[in-house]
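Known limitations

Files may contain more than one protein. Parsers should not assume a single record per file. Below, a two-record file is shown to illustrate correct handling: read the sequence, read the C-alpha cell line, then continue until end of file.
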Amino acid sequence: MTDATAPGASIEPSFDDVIAAIAFNADGLVPAIAQAEGSGEILMMAWMNREAVLETLRTGRVCYWSRSRKGLWRKGETSGQMQRLKDFRVDCDGDTLLVIVEQDGVACHTGRRSCFYRALRDGKLAIIQDVETDPSVLYGHTHK
C-alpha cells in the first residue's frame, strides 16, 4: 500500500472548486463551446452536466451530455472524431464553458470541420465550409 501523501504520489484532484464555479441551469446543464487549439476556430457547442465536466477533467477526453440520447456522449465514440482537452475555461458568470481541444478529424456530424458552416451572405445563409468526410463513413448513415 502506498502513502498518498508521500512525495511523488499521485493524488487525483477533486475539482470541487471548478464545479462550484459553474452555474448549471435548471436542467443541470451548461453550454460548452469547443474551440480548436492553435487556430482558435470555433468547432461546436454542446451541453455538459456535472458528470460530463468531471469525466472531461479526469480523463482529458471531452465528454458532453446528449439531450437527445439522455446520456453521456464521449465525443468521437461513434465517429472516431475525438476531442482531447487542452484547456478548460469558465466564463465570468460561470454559465458558459470554453473547452480548447485538439480535434481528430471533423467536429460536425455533417462531416464538416465546424458546426458553424453557414454564414449570412447577401441576406441569406450560405454554406462556407465543404464536407470533409462523408457522414455515412463516420456513422454508417447520412446526417443532415
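...continuing to the second record:
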Amino acid sequence: MQTLKLVAVSAGLSAPSSTRLLADRLAKAAESRLTEQEYAVEVQVVELRDLAVDIAKNFVTGFPSGELETAIDAVTGADGVIAVTPVFTASYSGLFKSFFDLIAPDALTGKPVLVAATGGTARHSLVLDHALRPLFAYLRALVVPTAVYAASEDWGSAGDETLPIGFGGDGLPSRIQRAGRELAEFVAARPAARDAEDDEVVPFEQQLADLRLD
C-alpha cells in the first residue's frame, strides 16, 4: 500500500485556535477520501506559532534552526499541503507570509495545495482569492478549486452537517468535505506522474559512459 503525506500549516496564534481546528478538519476530510482509495496516509501539522522566533531569526541570520528546517522540509516534501491563516488587516498574517517567504520559489511547483482562512466576519472571505491564491500561484503550486473560509458564525452552528455531499448544502462542513475531496483527488493523481519522471532520470554513471562512447 502506497503511503501519501499530507502537511497542514496552521498560522493560528492562540491555543486552541479556530485556524488549527479548520486545518485539522480539512486534513481529516482529505485523509478520509484517500483512505477510501486504499492509500495509507500520514498527516502532520506545522504550528507556526511555535516557530515564530525561529522564523524571525532566520531573516536576520540567513540560517534556519533545526526545528524550522524540519518544518520547511515537511512542507516541501509533502504530497499535498493545507495552508490555513487567520485574517489580519484583510490579508494573510505576517507569520504565515514570513514562513512561506523562506521556502524556495520552485519548491512547491506543481504541488497540490488547499488554501483556507479564518476570520471574525464573512466580509473577509475575499482574502482567499485576493491574497492566498496569488501567493501560491507565484510559488507555482497547484491550488485546488475549493478554498475554505470560516467566519466566527460558522462555528457551533449545525449548518448542513446532516445533508449528504452534493445535495445542496453549502455550510462549513460541506465546504470542508468538498475541499478535502478535491485535494485528495489532486494528490492521488500525482504519484503516477512522479514515478514516470523518476523513470526518465539517467544515472550519472550512464551519462559518463555515453560521453565516452561519443
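Parsers that stop after the first record will miss the second one. For reference, the second record is described as follows. The longest helix spans residues 172-199.
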